[in-house]
Amino acid sequence: MAFQDYFGTPIAYDPTQDRLVADATFTVHAIDDTSLSTPLPVTEPGSGAAIAELRSSSIGVLPDFRVAGDPAQVLIKSGSFVTSLTSVFGAVLAAGLDPDTVAAAILASDEASAARDDAQQAAASLTPEMISEAAGEALGDHPDVIASAVGLAQSDAGLVRKGQPEAVRVAALPGISFAVMTESADGLSLGLGAFILDEAGEIHPDSAAKIAAAVGATKPVTSIAVLGDSMSSDGKIPSTAGSYVRTMAQALGLEMFNPAIPGENPLDGLFRTGIPIRVTGLTSIPADTTEFVLAASQVNGGETGHRDTTATDGTGISTGAGVGQFLMDVMGVPMRFRRVVNTEGGYTVGQWRVNRVTAGQAIPLAPGVDVYATYTGAARFKDALWVFASGRNDMNLTRIRSVYDRVVAWIGHDNYLVLPPVLTSAAEVDGSFGTGRATVNGLLAAYAGRAFDWQPSMSSTAALTMAGITPTSQDTSDISDGIVPYSLRADTTHFTSLGVQVWGQTVLDLAGSWLNSHGIH
After folding, report:
1. 3-state class of 118 per DSSP?
2. Shared-domain flag, residues 113 and 250
3. Nearest C-alpha neighbor of 15 from the set 208, 248, 291, 298
4. Judgement on whether residues 146 and 281 belong to the same structural domain of the protein
5. Which residue from 8, 209, 302, 329 has the highest number of Cβ atoms inside 10 Å of its Cβ?
């Protein structure tokens, strides 16, 4: 039996007014129907019965529907509200997954389908214990079943938001709202990214992190990825070959994804994780490679990171290798985004210079339809062991935590480590100068159990012994001050090639028990 593509539990969300479009009637249009003049007929995915009126629920959720020809994207319209939707297989392709493999998982055995039906019936009762038990029966022997719908739904037990296609599993969370990984059940979506409600019925601010910690990884870890700066970059600074990330990857037998760029801060790193970055105001994806300019507010709502402002080539673009420059996929099209850092060339600081990498077919967009850009090549590392080590380019604890928490919510699992920034003087170490010590302590407290205070181990004779180095008088002085000894450093901040190897082994030693408990060794 061939799998039929469909639009699964779509959500009608208006980002301009930050609201759900509830109790509204919608028409469906081809993605290139910019005039929105030709509504497309829609049918029920299973029965093929015509849907005479496509209407959202009281919380803005539309029923599953199918469009003839199985397009990967369509536009939906209700009054002045217009947005684009991506089909189940459209999301699969965008995530870099193999459609045949996903189809085989979705169309698992009749036995698994029957078990999923049992889980759905239990879900209707809104009893967490029943849901967990039935979903366990459905999915315990079928870990490759795919939860494919994207949507938002509400139940008496809390809010649950569906994510991109993922392998699924069950998690019981005693004492709080439940989090069960399964498919949609008659008006109720259960899936990755469940929210915890507090006693007042409000969404708990740490829901995403708590759910991720409780659920754990849903897939075997085969790679390691990093959000970092020059301290994490792999061979991008002259004084250092390799990186601590490479040392960890080799020791653990993992593939490495290391997009860290010297000079960037956590918000820059956010762009490189693969998390979707919203782009507004585009009227089309052009056919040619001609560059165009976007205002700062059109990319990620204007939220951007630190930039090197010493561009010298007359273009307004940083001359730092790769700083503020991102290769992104937009609707499957590779595009180059470059952030303007000064007024050279007549540009305005904060603007984005954007161009398509290779010419192709133009993709028209209806007015008001937002698109999302994702860092090229990052999607398949969503399930990696993530290392958050944003470094010293922004030591603001609030901003660092905001980025980390967003990435944790996006990856949907708890396989991540936090490495606080290096402290470079005795005064920073003892907290008498600057905010470095407060930032380190804040990260250790916020991510207790997965944040590792590596500097004391690196600021020791043991670290030099690991490197096969006899301490010098300067090394001894540095160790007394609590900073990394000179023989392991290339400058005040960065480590030598040998130093990063010692750092990687130090992190492995400190995190060994944690890694073993997560099946990573």
Report:
1. helix
2. no
3. 298
4. no
5. 8
Residue 397: inside a domain: yes
What average pLDDT does the chain have? 77
Per DSSP, the three-state class of 274 is coil
Task: List Cβ neighbours of 6 (8 Å cut-off, separation of 6 or more).
Answer: 45, 64, 65, 66, 70, 87, 88
Q: Which tens digit of pLDDT belongs to each residue from 340-378? A: 988 888 899 899 999 999 999 998 887 777 889 999 999
Pairing of strands 25-30, 42-43: unpaired
Rounded to whole angstroms, what are the CA distances from 82 to 293, 365, 384, 419? 24, 10, 35, 43
Number of domains comprising the chain: 4
- 205 and 230 in a single domain? The answer is no
Q: Using only C-alpha atoms, what is the Rg of the chain?
A: 25
* 56 and 130 share one domain: no
For residues 304-321, average pLDDT: 75
Q: Which domain holds residue 39?
A: 13-94
Residue with token string 């915890």: 196
Domain end among 342, 375, 408: 375
- Amino acid letter for position 46: G
Length, in residues, of the chain: 521
Indicate if 513 and 391 belong to the same structural domain.
Answer: yes
Count Cβ atoms within 10 A of the Cβ of residue 225 and give its class: 0-12 exposed, 13-18 middle, 19 or more buried: buried
Residue 437 is part of a domain; what is its CATH number? 3.40.50.1110
Residues with Cβ within 8 Å of residue 26, at least 6 apart in sequence: 12, 54, 55, 56, 62, 76, 77, 78
- Which of 94, 129, 160 terminates a domain? The answer is 94
- pTM for this structure? 0.62
In terms of Cβ atoms closer than 10 Å to its own Cβ (0-12, 13-18, 19+), residue 281 is middle
**Please, are residues 383 and 217 in contact by the beta-carbon 8 Å criterion?**
yes
Strands 223-228 and 66-67: unpaired
Residue 211 scores a pLDDT above 60: no
